[in-house]
UniProtKB/TrEMBL annotation:
NCBIfam families assigned to the protein according to its UniProt record, in alphabetical order: argB
UniProt-listed Pfam families: AA_kinase
Catalytic activity: N-acetyl-L-glutamate + ATP = N-acetyl-L-glutamyl 5-phosphate + ADP
Species assigned in the record: Thioclava marina
Record carries keyword Amino-acid biosynthesis: yes
Compartment(s): Cytoplasm
Pathway annotation from the record: Amino-acid biosynthesis; L-arginine biosynthesis; N(2)-acetyl-L-ornithine from L-glutamate: step 2/4
Gene Ontology terms, MF aspect: kinase activity
Name used for this protein in its record: Acetylglutamate kinase
Amino acid sequence: MDRDWIATARTLSEALPYLQRYTGAVVVVKFGGNAMGDDEAMAEFARDIVLMRQVGMNPVVVHGGGPMINDMLKKLGIESEWVRGKRVTDKATVEVVEMILSGLVNKRIVQAINDQGGRAVGISGKDDDLMVCEADDPELGFVGRPVEMNVQIVRDLYNAGLIPVIAPVATGVADNETFNVNGDTAAGAIAGALQADRLLLLTDVAGVKNKQGEVITQLTPEDVAALIEDGTIAGGMIPKVETALQAVKEGVRAVVIVDGRVANACLLELFTEHGAGSMIRSTIPRVTPRGR
Ligand SMILES: Nc1ncnc2c1ncn2[C@@H]1O[C@H](COP(=O)(O)OP(=O)(O)O)[C@@H](O)[C@H]1O
Ligand SMILES: CC(=O)N[C@@H](CCC(=O)OP(=O)(O)O)C(=O)O
C-alpha cells in the first residue's frame, strides 16, 4: 500500500474526533508580523485557515505587522520607540500604522486566503465600531486600550460563510481619533468578546519556555504569574501571556501560544493529540496529555 496513503489515513483517523468536537467552534488566530514570512509561508497559513472553515469551524484572523510598519517608517525617516512591548505612536506614526495594517498587510492576507479558495473579508477595528479605544497610557500617544467591543459584525461575517481578517487599528471614544492597538491585545479582546473556543497566538518561538529552554505544554494562570515573577517570562512574551490571561478570564476556553513559522501550525495544534506550543487555560483536565 502506498506510504503516503497510510500517513494520510492515520492523520485523518487521529483528526476525526477533533473534527467532530470543533464543528461550529469559534477560533481566533493572531497572525504576528514575525510569523508571516514569504509568499509560500503565507499560502501555507491561508490553507490552514481555509481548511478550518471547510470542516465547519469559524476562524477569525486578527493580524499584526510590526516589521512591515518598521520598514515603511524607516523609508519615511520616522523613528520609533518601544515602551513595554508597545510602539510609542505620534500622529505621523499612527497614519503609517493604519496605511500598512489596514492596507498592505490586511489585503495581503485576504488575497492569500481567497487564492486558497476561501472567502475572506478584511476589516479593521474601525468597521462597525468593532473595537472602540481609549488612550492606553499618555506616554504611548495614540496607542489604544479597547474599552468597548461590538463583535456582531464578526459574527455576521462568519455566519455568512466569510472569513473575517481584522487589522488592529481602532476608533476612539472621541470623534475622529485613530488608535494603534497591539495585535495580541486586539486578538485577546476580540476572542473575549466572542467567547471564543480557542485563541491561537502565532509567534516566532515554539511556545512559553522554562528556565532550561524547554516548551511548557500546559500552563494555568497561577503558573504564568510565577514565571513572570521569577523572570523566566520576559520581553515580548509578557504582553502575550498577559493577553492570554485576560482572554481566559473573559471566558475564552483556551489560549495557545504556538510557532507560526512551522508548517500547518494551526492544524497541528487543533487536530493532533499532542497539540503544539503552550496551552493556557484556567484548569487542566486529565483526560488526554493536552486535556482537550
Ligand atoms: N519564557 C519565554 N519563552 C519563550 N519566549 C520568551 C520567553 N521570555 C521571553 N521570550 C521572548 O518573547 C519573544 C516573543 O515575543 P515577540 O517577539 O513580541 O513576538 P511577536 O512578534 O510574535 O508578537 C520570543 O522571541 C522570545 O525572545
Ligand atoms: C501598539 C503597538 O505596538 N502596535 C503594533 C501593531 C502591530 C503589531 O502588533 O504587530 P506584530 O503582531 O507583528 O508585533 C505596532 O505598532 O507594531
